[in-house]
């Protein structure tokens, strides 16, 4: 079977949607030259109006996309750095997200915000390494963090077709993941539906994005000692509460590994939802970035701040 | 046309006066930013637009929305938070929208709507339509980076948009002279956008300038910037009625009010025609107020209706 990388899956999803729907267009910085490779080949194929290279004006072009969406387009914005989402938080959370309710349902804002290379980009330090998906979930913007090439393809297609704003995080550490895939089997993946990435009986590990792969590796490593189930919600908001509960009710124990800062992060929400619905046999645990973390530059410091395999392993062993 | 412009400025003026009364009586909660004194701009700009054009508005937006043809009863109901309001009571004074008339919404974030209008106008052109967007904003918005970014995008891509700056001399209490370095039109010109200063108190002058700008945009020649000079006769916001802010002198207010768009346009009609329009506006607004007051309040169980396009 042919191999598909996560990055190539994003490219393929964009190409397929541009082909399928004339309302779709992509905009962002250096996307004509495809500096991030996500839009490789698209400008030559679809032209300057549908692959719109923008000046460095994130706030205006994010609202520009909202305006285009209000009159029937389906813009997809590629952001060069995850922290640019802070710069346009107003335009997403306060404008795009609020139009539907504030107008009494008169309009839709189907914009997709794609961040290829979210989270730590080894060596890029404090202002290039954020992973603010919890922030968007908190304000109620639909948010996805796919782990695999098939999910990257399927969720990007769904995000583009969705009638609401959707923020799409493609973690830097997942972009190189490659899977053997039958390309014909690539299909939309619904929002708000998680998947059991590995079935197990003793403990549920909830992980998103690149951390799903880390969780799977740790589960393999511990296979002789405990049976770990890895649950990948895929969508941060709306969360697959039913899928989460089903897994935790089976295992009775929960660890969340989450690349957010700890306070009010995604892991905190998962623990709260589980506490409301399940009776656990051990206190739940979180493996996260520390509170208020700024990713330091030096490699050892960067790794010390990011949640990773070792901490997950230790946490699971402590629970057993 | 003279009569139509007069009807519009008179309608806006009397609508605002009634709305202020409803703020005082408590029917409108949260207050409003009165458009009194600036009516000539909305009337002139919207009279230059066609049915397929779109507008965006501001926190001081009732005039724009009325001039674009929104139903006064539904706007008043919106201010009162009623189910029959333009936005079903979900938007209020600062967010009035009527997409069926191309009103893409009033926006409460100063400087935000210019880039939204630019995107909408660009998209409509992509769709093969010859629509133009007119986007209103105040002098205060001239210091918002996002709006300056929008000027650049609009000029680069020759977007059919008319930027309408309503320079009423103040951003809340901040005088323009203390806030804007250089000049307002100079900022637009720096992006290669033709920029003109227009007497915003005269609806016919505004109409004339906007017609030229709209024709230019339709001909594919890109954006135009109009600085419409005006004066806000009333408070920044009705909360100011309960305070004693001293940022404008009594003399200044008197001078400012001496050039009234309703009087300037009214003087172009015969006394009989003017009286007929006034009576027509009064009965329209009397009915509108009645309809608004009689409309149902939304059901609290539906407080989050329309948050998403569908079920999630
Ligand atoms: C980005 C932003 N900053 C501050 C405010 C608070 N605010 C509301 S209206 C206003 C003054 C706006 O002045 P101007 O643009 O000249 O419009 P005017 O009120 O004079 O019509 C301010 C500061 C806001 N709504 N948005
Ligand atoms: Mg002002």
From TrEMBL, chain A:
The protein's matches in SMART domains, at most eight in alphabetical order, are given as: Transket_pyr (SM00861)
Q: Which cofactor does it need?
A: thiamine diphosphate
Q: Which UniProt keywords apply?
A: Oxidoreductase, Thiamine pyrophosphate
Q: Where is the Transketolase-like pyrimidine-binding domain?
A: 4-177
Provide a Gene Ontology MF annotation, just one.
oxidoreductase activity
UniProt KW GTP-binding keyword: no
What is this protein's record name? Alpha-ketoacid dehydrogenase subunit beta
Which InterPro entries does UniProt cross-reference here? THDP-binding, Transketo_C/PFOR_II, Transketolase-like_Pyr-bd, Transketolase_C
Species whose genome carries this gene: Kribbella albertanoniae
Which Pfam families does this UniProt record tie to the protein?
Answer: Transket_pyr, Transketolase_C
From TrEMBL, chain B:
User: What SUPFAM superfamilies does its record include?
Assistant: Thiamin diphosphate-binding fold (THDP-binding)
The record's section on Gene3D superfamilies has:
3.40.50.970
Limits of the Dehydrogenase E1 component domain: 9-273
Presence of the UniProt keyword Oxidoreductase in the record: yes
Q: Which Pfam families match?
A: E1_dh (PF00676)
Name the domain of life this protein comes from. Bacteria
Q: Which CDD domains match?
A: TPP_E1_PDC_ADC_BCADC (cd02000)
Q: Does the keyword Oxidoreductase apply?
A: yes
Cofactor(s) this protein cannot do without: thiamine diphosphate
Q: Name one GO biological process term.
A: pyruvate decarboxylation to acetyl-CoA
Q: Which InterPro entries match?
A: DH_E1, PDH_E1_Alpha_Subunit, THDP-binding
Q: What is this protein called?
A: Thiamine pyrophosphate-dependent dehydrogenase E1 component subunit alpha
